[in-house]
Write a structure and sequence with these properties.
single chain, alpha+beta, 8-stranded mixed beta sheet, globular
Length: 214
């Protein structure tokens, strides 16, 4: 069973340079493009918006400076947004972050990667480094995306009772969960990247989908 890391892609390191090229070549499983966008669209938007922090989901224990190894180890992508349309989703947007444009690549679906990447402590440590004052993580999931709903629920997200209806793909449930970490994470480790690492919990035998929130 492999471990996972969430690597911020707004850094200037050798592994980030390679991972940025890797995620731009990602493709989605059939039928999933209606639920999430790809980095070829979402990464440039994040690059010009200081409130958005893109990240890659990767296996631990591999050399991410090698393009071939990084391509095999990169299991997904997402964006933490400190602003976005949070004011439409929660009562205290200044205390929340939005998880958006998240997906798991087809090769890693059904292995518990999406659930682990969205669970504490992995996602929470990343959020603490991006937005130290955030107390809640928020996301939107299409009402028809039953697999996505199960995945997010298994990661601890619950419905807020609100719906987001301004997206291009129909009504979405608004889900949230508290940031579960009692300590702030330093912006950088000595190597330049926070040590957001965890060993996944046992996988569940079902594919995982993600939600479109560009």
């Amino acid at each position: 069973m492999v471990g996972l890391r969430l690597v911020r892609l707004d850094r200037y390191t050798a592994e980030v340079s390679v991972l940025r090229q890797v995620v731009l070549r990602h493709r989605l499983a059939p039928g999933q493009s209606r639920y999430t966008g790809l980095p070829v669209e979402t990464l440039p938007r994040a690059d010009v918006d200081p409130a958005r922090v893109p990240f890659a989901v990767v296996r631990t224990g591999v050399d991410l400076t090698d393009p071939e190894t990084a391509r095999d180890a990169c299991a997904g992508f997402g964006i933490i947004d400190r602003v976005g349309h949070l004011s439409d989703l929660v009562d205290a947007p200044e205390r929340a972050v939005l998880l958006r444009a998240f997906y798991v690549t087809p090769e890693y679906q059904g292995l518990g990667v999406g659930r682990t990447a969205c669970s504490a402590p992995l996602l929470d440590l990343l959020v603490a480094g991006v937005a130290p004052r955030a107390t809640d993580i928020v996301l939107c999931v299409n009402e028809g995306n039953e697999v996505g709903l199960r995945t997010y629920r298994s990661a601890g997200f619950t419905s807020t009772g609100r719906r987001y209806v301004d997206g291009p793909n129909g009504p979405q449930f608004v889900m949230s969960r508290p940031v579960r970490t009692g300590a702030h994470v330093p912006e950088r480790s000595e190597a330049g990247v926070p040590p957001h690492t965890v060993t996944p919990v046992p996988p569940r035998p079902r594919p995982e989908r993600t939600e479109k929130s560009q």
